[in-house]
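User: Predict Probable replication restart protein PriA's structure from this.
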Amino acid sequence: MDVPLAHLDRPFDYLVPAELADDARPGTRVKVRFAGQLVGGWLLERVPSSEHGGRLAYLDRLVSPEPVLSPEIARLARAVADRYAGNLADVLRLAVPPRHARVERETVPSEKPQPAPTGGAGPASTGGAEPARASGAEPASTSGAGPAPARGSASPAAGGPAVDDLAAGWAAYPTGPAYLRALAGGRSPRAVWSALAGENWPARFAEALTATARSGRGAVAVVPDARDLDRLDAALTALSGAGGHVVLSAALGPAKRYRAFLAARRGAVPVVIGTRAAGFAPVDRLGLVAVWDDGDDLHAEPRAPYPHARDVLLTRAQLAGAAALVGGYARSGEAQLLVETGWAKEVVATRETLRARTPKVLPTGDDPQLARDPAAATARLPSLAWEAARAALKADAPVLVQVPRRGYLPSVSCADCRAPARCAHCAGPLALRSARALPACHWCGRVDAAYACPECGGRRLRAAVTGARRTAEELGRAFPGVPVRTSGREEVLAEVPGGASVVVATPGAEPVAVGGYGAVLLLDTWALLTRADLRASEEALRRWLAAAALARPAGDGGRVVVVADGGLATVQALLRWDPAWFADRELTERRELGFPPAVRMASLTGTPEAVADLLAVVRLPAGVEVLGPVPAAEGQERMLLRVARSGAAALARALHDAAGVRTARKAAQPVRVQVDPLDLL
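Assistant:
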């Protein structure tokens, strides 16, 4: 039932009325009476009889005869709910989009599936429920899809590229062509792919998805955002033509999203691509799951039970016996763990290929640079960065400048004593939104026109942190006559034409340049490296590699200047373009310190009384270490529970049971339970 209460997170048995016997099939949406109310739910299974000895109620009505929940997705949703100490109903809300009746009517299947058995009770009852038997439900309908190729068939479709042509795109990686041939041959290889600089990753993903479809199997690929999705959509269309895949994203709108979902559910298309919700997309005979840039925090679902798209896909691959592809310029600690345990093999280029394809990376904090430019240690844009930008513009090539902060001056301080400027009302940081704007608070928005420093009484302000718009303004004055563009949250550029220009972008909003950038400048690196976050170094390298990958190879004049000390491990990984080494180093350190992914951690956030109440009722398994409490949001605290990976399932089950006790008691104050949250610190 679609009820977000942990103590009701189980299947219930109901009788199926005779008039609904033909249409009430596993996977359909239904309405039932429960505790005097009409609630929605999903029909999981039809069986001849019920093990419940009490009286059973009847299904109230059938919302739609469309079986939107496939048996595979039902099993996956249950596994994800168990993994994250959540409720099945919450996961199903993420997996199955809201119904759109008009779309269902306009895309009626050409062939109605056989009716379900009519022997008596189907799942759901008001007591004595038995475990869900989703694995015994009817197979997904493939109406409208036509006969699928035989499993293992690798013959190309009419006019499509041959398998060898698909594998040729992976020739830069010694094991890449074999991986593609294994997909086309119906096998299920699992790989962690470290993409080269300048790699056309959408084309490589399209080749892997197409090779899987050639074997008569389905494939699902998940990317972080809409811009990546547009690129992958274009690559798939160029390779296999329109109609061979659908795009599934919440940004499509209710009708388009539900239409794409139904096309996949009915087997009309073998390939589904999308953002994180597409990880649950129903496809027939799943053969491959793929995720690009799994370290991006956009893959983390902000709604309960807060699953991560990478973990959803890997769980799905494990349950379905499907292939997996985890790709990116950087490598997360979780991806490194897959390689270390042998669950997946790495697909990487040789060092010779790396040297030929990567740009030349130069740090500004090395001794030779300091000898030439003593101000390089403190300058925001040292002479080395200026020279690289001038050389690129002189060669009629664009320049990319990555700035971690958006806005104009997102933080200011007293010009006399350097004390941070704070709002007199809420103590939030003051900022300037333009050169002529008055200082305003970042938190409450109040304008402080008569600001006076409480430390020294000074009234002049200076920049403490420089944003993207101010950087663009400064560069426009430094390079008169050169077009300067910005790309950030307000406006994300998709592509930059060739020719001399300067692009100032925040991390994640860097546009692709035709022919590649002649120079990439990574400024204010301290803002990424000094974040109070367990993944600060990993995130910094991921952002830098994503920007540096857009530069031209060193042989074509490509330069990357990182304003940081070259002795830092993060900078060393960038200099050598060796994300695998850095990921292994990070994983080793986290294992020594007892942090994910080497261990599993759960976070409990709520008022002190609510957290204490949950801890009082939870039966923690052996080996769980309780850490905290630490302050969280206003009036709340946070407790951390740490356990070995082998004990993760028991901990999640214990937390779910404790949440069930509290919901049964109708506890007034909720506790937010998150397993392996991204923000531990």
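Residues 358-589 form one domain.
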